[in-house]
Amino acid sequence: MKLKDILDRKSLPEPWSEGDNIPWNDPGFSRRMLREHLTQSHDLASRRSVRIDAHVDWIHREMLSGRLVKVLDLACGPGLYASRLARLGHRCVGIDFSPASIAYAKRQTVEEDLSCEYIHADIRSIEYGSGFGLVMLIFGEFNVFRPSDAARILANVHAALDEGGVLLLEAHTGEAIREFGLRPASWYASESGVFSGLPHLCLQENFWDAQSETVTRRYFVVDASSGEVTRYAQTLKAYTEEQYRASLEAAGFGDVRFHPSLTGTDDVLQRDLLVIQARRQ
Ligand SMILES: C[S@@+](CC[C@H](N)C(=O)[O-])C[C@H]1O[C@@H](n2cnc3c(N)ncnc32)[C@H](O)[C@@H]1O
């Protein structure tokens, strides 16, 4: 794309039509993003270690009452949760389509001889297997899926869980998604960032679509030396608590409960997310 294409862009993007998601599965993007997952200076790609430690402690003690089970972590990133759960004695499987994250997670497993298996795949299309006591999909990733994909993921999770097994879904609140869509456009200049390893500008705009209850974030990445433009887009679907409950019940789950965070208590750093626990019945 050229700069002129930015001027000629559609004033309102159709949800999911300009791209599924940011390019997690692109090798260069995933390599640069891995640094953001592992940094201890912010919580943007993965949370910092001290917070993940507290989440894993709560999952082990409260969600699982200390029982050792087979765990499936969907969209596991570099395996920061799965590796900790494995150190506590759980057997873990992690699936993610970021090549650098999965390579990092596999290296950790070998170095520490952990009971973890990592699979490089798209969670919208892979079979999950069976016999799990816990399936988790955390840090708001559920909202990026089209409703048809989200329903299929929930049905596949249901099939992968043992009777009584638990789904742990950490998703965005409906209000947070609407607020993302109402944020003004913004831009930054960078010598090297997740979207490009070369000097570039990144222009972002956000759209709230009240009809589909989605936010679409559009990113134009302008290469500083050539002026070449690359567009990325991500759409997130807003759900109310009632809609989350209805989607889970439609997929065969029961005993649906809501928690304010992955420590069970209010987390002022994370009010845009809520935690949903549901059981296969
Ligand atoms: C915000 S990161 C969270 C990673 C991890 N759950 C954590 O909290 O540390 C989102 C992850 O979702 C993964 N992801 C997004 N869509 C995916 C898909 N369709 N299939 C597999 N992985 C996906 C990305 O590659 C990325 O690693």
What does this structure look like?
This protein has 281 residues and is α/β, with parallel strands linked by helices. It folds into two domains: 3-22 and 176-237, no CATH class; 27-172 and 239-280, Vaccinia Virus protein VP39 (Rossmann fold). Helix content is 31%, strand content 30%. It has helices spanning 3-7, 27-38, 49-63, 80-87, 99-112, 147-160, 174-182, 241-250, and strands at 70-74, 91-96, 116-120, 132-137, 161-172, 186-190, 200-209, 214-223, 229-237, 253-259, 273-280. Strands 3-2-1-4-5-11-10 form a seven-stranded mixed β-sheet, sandwiched between helices. It has a four-stranded antiparallel β-sheet with strand order 6-7-8-9. The chain is globular. The chain starts with a helix and ends with a strand.
Key attributes of the depicted protein:
7-stranded mixed β-sheet; 8 helices; binds S-adenosylmethionine; 281 residues; 31% helix; alpha/beta; 2 domains
List the helices and strands and how they pair.
Layout: H1 3-7, H2 27-38, H3 49-63, E1 70-74, H4 80-87, E2 91-96, H5 99-112, E3 116-120, E4 132-137, H6 147-160, E5 161-172, H7 174-182, E6 186-190, E7 200-209, E8 214-223, E9 229-237, H8 241-250, E10 253-259, E11 273-280
Helix pairs in contact: 2-5, 3-4
Bound molecules: S-adenosylmethionine.
